[in-house]
Every structure is written in C-alpha cells, then in structure tokens.
Amino acid sequence: MMTPAPLVVQGRGDGMRDVVRRRYLLSLLVRKELRVRYRASLLGLGWSYVKPAVQFGVYFVGLGLLLRQNAIGDYAVYLFGGLVVMTAFSEAVGNATRSVVVNGDLVRKIYLPRELFPVSSLFVSAVHLGPQLLVLLVGAIVAGWRPDPVGLLALVLGLLLTAMLALGLGLLLAAVNVFFRDVENLVDLVLMVLVWASPVLYSWQRVADLVGRDSAWLTAYQANPLTVAVELVHRGTWAHASPGNAAATPPGLLGYTVLAFGIAAALLVVGQLTFRRLSGRFAQEL
C-alpha cells in the first residue's frame, strides 16, 4: 500500500531553500529584469558605467574642488569606493522593496517562491556592480594601490556585508510594501539620506571632531553596518594607494566588522521570517 504524499499548503514555501532549488527561475527573472530595463536602449548595460560616472563627477567637482574635501588623500578613489557601496545598496533595496508589487501578475496567477523577486533584485544590482567595481580597481591602481591579502579580504567582506544588509532589508520591506504602498516612497527618502550617514563624501575624522572621539555618538556612527561596509571597501582599495592613507583608517574596524555581520545576520533572519509569514496573503492583497 502506497503512503500518501503529505499535504502542502500552497502559498507557503520553504523560504530561501526554495530559491536555491529553483535557481533556473531566478536566472529567468534576472534576465527579464535586465531586458525590460534596457529595452530600446542604445547603451544598454553601458548605463551602469554612465550613471555612477556622472554621480561621481558631480560629487567630485562639488565637494572635492569647490568645498575642498580633497584634503583627503586620493579623494577620487575614496569617494568612488563609498559610492560603489551606496549605489549597490540603494539599487538593491529600492528595487527589492517594489519587487513583489511590480510582479503582481505573476503572484496572482501562479505559485512560485515569492522570495525569488527580492533576491532577483539583488542579483540585478550585482550585475551593475561589476562595471563599477572594475572602474574602482583601475582607478585605485592608477593612484598607486597594490593589492594585499588583508585589503582584498576587507574588500570581499565589505561587498558581502552590503549584500546581506540589502537582502535582509529587501525581504522585510518587500513584504510590508504589499500592504502599505507608502513604504516604497519612504525608502526612497531614507536612501537619499543614507549617503550622508556614512563616510562616503567625508572622512570619519570629521564626525570625531564634531562629536568628540570618546562620544557615544561616534561609537554608534561607527557601529552602523553601512559605515563598516564603506570603511572595509576603503581599506581594500584606498588605504594603501598612498602612504598616508592607512593612518586614516578608523581604529577598531575588526571589532565593528564582527558586530556589523551579527546585525546583518539578525536582519536577514527577521526579513526572511516576516516575508514568509506574510507571503501567503500576497495574492489577495495584490
């Protein structure tokens, strides 16, 4: 006598494990997103070079030349390293927040792991990150940077931390945005502010001079996971470009890195649990 197959509640999947099992669907969604974004575009993926280059030029002229922030050694490499992190994070979180709503037709018509949508947004941002990272590394080499094992590890950890933060927040915000569409507008506002809340356009020493080096505010600022991600990328590409840059690396970066990864892991768990709990109601709400 055959044992009957266990009943499966439709609309409630197995979380991120379903994404791994359905890697082919993930690749299809990523390709669809890229085709839709660059349909009838002459430059295509070339826009992933143009947009950050223009953003870099505006900040470099406005802050580096006009406001004299270029007192930071190799300011162009410093600035672009921070922009790489913030651009990738902002794109991943912003697109992930809208991902379920944008794919509402698929959600209503067929069942597939809902986590595929925010995860595909992360992979699309990774596609755009590649050219930016290449430009950063070439610029760092021109400035005098030579790779070292600790620096390469810091660069990899910085990018990994950015991805974990973006995925955790993306899962959480994508689920909530299905029920409250104001979330995506709020996210856009917060992402605009975040570029000023991390040492992208200025050095951490400016914050230390403002609030005091023994201040709890400075500790909270340096414990911000995005600040840690930016500083790790700076350590990987900018710190050894010139002899004086390494001295500007914030103290205690290793401890803050461990703390940041703990926060990112907790955020990833919370985001996954929230998404999984709410995903069964997505079709009805959409």
TrEMBL record:
Where in the cell?
Cell inner membrane; Cell membrane
Q: How does it sit in the membrane?
A: Multi-pass membrane protein
Domain of life of the native organism: Bacteria
Q: Can you cite a GO biological process for this protein?
A: response to antibiotic
Q: Which PROSITE patterns does the record match to this protein?
A: ABC_TM2 (PS51012)
Molecular function GO labels: ABC-type transporter activity
Main localization category: membrane
PANTHER family from the UniProt entry: INNER MEMBRANE TRANSPORT PERMEASE, TRANSPORT PERMEASE PROTEIN
- The family this protein is said to belong to: Belongs to the ABC-2 integral membrane protein family.
Q: What is this protein called?
A: Transport permease protein
Q: Name its species.
A: Knoellia koreensis
